[in-house]
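Input record, target 12 of the design panel.
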């Protein structure tokens, strides 16, 4: 019995020493290095230290001036009609107009004419809307009076003759006039939207076209070339002319 207990204690102690030794061996072993991380870090370092070429710097720094100007013109025209055209007029002082051979005076005069046309159209539409509303109210009041008085004209209305009995327009004519002026009011409101939309489109297009080079420095080149028409039977080359236009 005592031998059995002693044997169990010795076995347990031996197992404990074996586990302790294996743990120390694992701790003393060097961990394998991750070569992929080293290669990746080296590649990143070389990429960071690689000098940037002029082409790369131009790609990184290039901003399309026409797109930026177009957005600014649209934003201004959406807030106040004609503000985008005024912004395009200020763009003429950046040198692009002179380089492209355009006269700044006539360009500014043309842009100012567009601003005048925008507000002239708005003024005409406003006057038309006021007049249509006035006539619509007159015809509506007359029609309501006739519906309440058995088709008799309003003696105090504008459609009665001097005798205050007969009228210049029948009830059907009054109804037609009312509908006509109501339709005119709707057309004016729709025209307001068209003028507003045209103002935005014009400002955007003018701002974008301002940065296009339309000078006389054009070149045209004609050179021989070959058109490859591969087929299942072999290679076939067709002679052709290549036209290149540079502007």
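The sequence produced for target 12 reads:
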């Amino acid at each position: 019995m005592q031998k059995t207990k002693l044997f169990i204690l010795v076995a347990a102690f031996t197992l404990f020493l074996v586990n302790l030794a294996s743990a120390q061996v694992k701790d003393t072993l060097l961990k394998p290095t991750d070569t992929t991380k080293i290669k990746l870090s080296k590649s990143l370092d070389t990429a960071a230290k690689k000098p940037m070429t002029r082409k790369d710097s131009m790609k990184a720094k290039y901003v399309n001036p026409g797109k930026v100007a177009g957005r600014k013109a649209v934003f201004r025209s959406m807030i106040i009609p004609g503000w985008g055209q005024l912004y395009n007029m200020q763009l003429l002082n950046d040198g692009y107009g002179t380089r492209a051979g355009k006269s700044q005076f006539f360009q500014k005069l043309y842009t100012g004419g567009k601003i005048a046309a925008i507000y002239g159209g708005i003024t005409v539409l406003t006057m038309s809307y006021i007049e249509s509303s006035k006539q619509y109210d007159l015809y509506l009041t007359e029609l309501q009076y006739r519906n309440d008085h058995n088709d008799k004209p309003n003696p105090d209305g504008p459609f009665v003759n001097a005798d205050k009995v007969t009228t210049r327009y029948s009830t059907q004519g009054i109804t037609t006039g009312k509908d006509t002026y109501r339709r005119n009011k709707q057309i004016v409101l729709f025209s307001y939207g068209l003028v507003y939309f045209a103002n935005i489109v014009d400002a955007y297009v003018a701002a974008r076209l301002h940065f296009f080079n339309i000078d006389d420095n054009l070149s045209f080149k004609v050179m021989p070339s070959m058109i490859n028409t591969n087929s299942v039977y072999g290679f076939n080359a067709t002679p052709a002319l290549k036209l290149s236009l540079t502007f």
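The radius of gyration is 43 Å.
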